[in-house]
Design brief:
Radius of gyration: 19 Å
Largest sheet: 6 strands, mixed
Bound molecules: 2-acetamido-2-deoxy-beta-D-glucopyranose
Order of helices and strands: HEEEHHEEHEEEHEHHEEEEEEE
Keywords: Apoplast, Secreted, Signal
Number of helices: 7
Pfam family, one: Phi_1
Number of strands: 16
Signal peptide: 1-30
Strand content: 15-25%
Mean pLDDT: 83
Protein name: Protein EXORDIUM-like 3
Subcellular location: Secreted, Extracellular space, Apoplast
Helix content: 10-25%
Strand order of the largest sheet: 1-8-9-6-3-4
Length: 361
């Protein structure tokens, strides 16, 4: 991933090195939710005006389109069976916070929601199939949940101890999470007071599969952290603005209001979407990715970080909806009238990033 020559998505070389050095345990990263080709003169663009700095010219589509992107299929399975997302709440979570994330997961298969919807966003993920001709499933549901309120492995987790938290959840004496290797996905969510290896410095989330030697089974899982107190400007952008995202002589820009009233958790939603899309299309790190190294794959959501709407790229989110009532930024509707901002994913037929709120479909 670190070496992928995709012009709109070039990473700061320093970050790439940091991650390459730190990632001893293989995993699939979610980087910051916007690309690192930050051109400070383009900072205004996030306020809604595409900047000249983002104009790459020609007839090329901007949203991630590039002749350098070679997304390839590597013969492994995609998640074709009905997906059940089992959630582990690690640390301290409020009921409203849990409701936002549950609402997002439940929206993934809710076709009754008005366009553009979360289920419409998942439709692009469903375009991916494996060599048996099976597509990613349309059916994603919320499974069992487990609370780890007492921080069973402490307030600082490593890549490996994340798997120990999952082991504890599936082997608990009271109400263990079901072991469901066919369609089960395990989503470990850490509260804002928990540090995780490489959190904020290189990633906002990652996914991989558990090792039988630790957990007893090979289970696809993802970790996503609440960045609210550690690095919201990195992992909950645009609901928080990083300090250095400031052209000289300009006033600090106000962050966009979060649609569900919680910047940290509203920011997590896009990272959770990113990880679920990649788990579905590359669950065992041998299906859909670009780049030559399966330890550092560039997957369908990596290609579209920071792109939430038409014209997105660089420092510009792309066109999203700003709600006239409260100013909240979002791009998809969810169940129960909820609104979410979810990054786009790579469309395998169009060969650029795509989402249900695209203006030119
Ligand atoms: C940013 O926006 C302000 C106000 O609209 C404008 O005065 C300024 O020139 C803009 N800066 C850039 C770099 O576009
Ligand atoms: C940033 O964007 C401005 C305005 O388009 C451009 O003049 C400048 O060269 C860009 N800087 C970099 C480092 O790309
Ligand atoms: C998958 O989910 C759908 C919708 O909930 C359901 O109708 C179907 O029976 C499920 N399939 C299996 C194999 O469980
Ligand atoms: C399944 O995948 C194929 C490509 O592999 C695609 O053409 C087709 O539209 C997909 N089906 C659905 C329902 O998305
Ligand atoms: C769905 O989203 C559109 C635009 O993003 C918005 O105009 C509409 O009001 C939303 N519908 C609901 C029910 O929230």
């Amino acid at each position: 991933m670190a070496s992928l020559p995709a012009p709109p998505l070039l990473f700061f070389p320093l970050l790439a090195v940091l991650v390459a050095a730190a990632t001893l345990v293989p995993s699939c990263e979610a980087w910051r939710p916007w690309p690192n080709t930050l051109n400070l003169t383009a900072a205004n663009a996030t306020a809604g005006v595409p900047s000249r700095a983002l104009d790459i010219g020609g007839s090329k589509r901007f949203e991630g389109s590039s002749e350098f992107v070679h997304l390839r299929y590597h013969m492994g399975p995609v998640l074709a069976a009905n997906i059940t997302v089992h959630v582990i709440w690690y640390g301290t979570w409020s009921r409203p916070q849990k409701r936002i994330i549950r609402g997002f997961i439940r929206s993934l298969s809710d076709d009754s929601v008005p366009h553009p919807s979360v289920a419409g966003w998942w439709r692009t993920v469903r375009l991916y199939a494996d060599q048996t001709g099976s597509n990613v499933t349309a059916h994603v549901s919320l499974g069992s949940e487990k609370n780890d309120r007492l921080y069973s492995l402490g307030r600082s987790l490593t890549r490996l101890s994340v798997q120990h938290v999952i082991r504890a959840a599936v082997s608990a004496r009271r109400r263990p999470l079901p072991v469901n290797p066919r369609g089960g996905l395990y989503l470990l969510l850490t509260s804002s007071d928990v540090a995780v290896q490489d959190f904020c410095s290189g990633s906002c989330g990652f996914h991989y599969f558990t090792f039988p030697s630790i957990v007893g089974y090979t289970l696809p899982y993802a970790w996503v952290g609440n960045s609210a107190t550690r690095c919201p400007g990195i992992c909950a952008y645009p609901y928080a603005i990083p300090e250095y995202f400031l052209p000289p002589g300009q006033k600090k820009r106000q962050p966009a209001p979060a649609p569900n009233g919680d910047a940290g958790v509203d920011g997590m939603v896009s990272v959770i979407g990113h990880e679920l899309a990649e788990l579905a299309t590359n669950p065992l790190a041998n299906a859909w990715y670009a780049g030559a190294d399966p330890s550092f794959p560039t997957e369908i959501a990596d290609l579209c970080e920071g792109i939430y709407g038409t014209g997105g790229g660089g420092a510009y989110t792309g066109q999203v909806t700003v709600d006239g009532r409260d100013g909240a930024w979002y791009n998809v509707n969810g169940s129960g009238g909820r609104r979410f901002l979810v990054q786009w994913v790579w469309h395998p037929q169009l060969n650029y990033c795509f989402g249900p709120n695209a203006l030119d479909q």
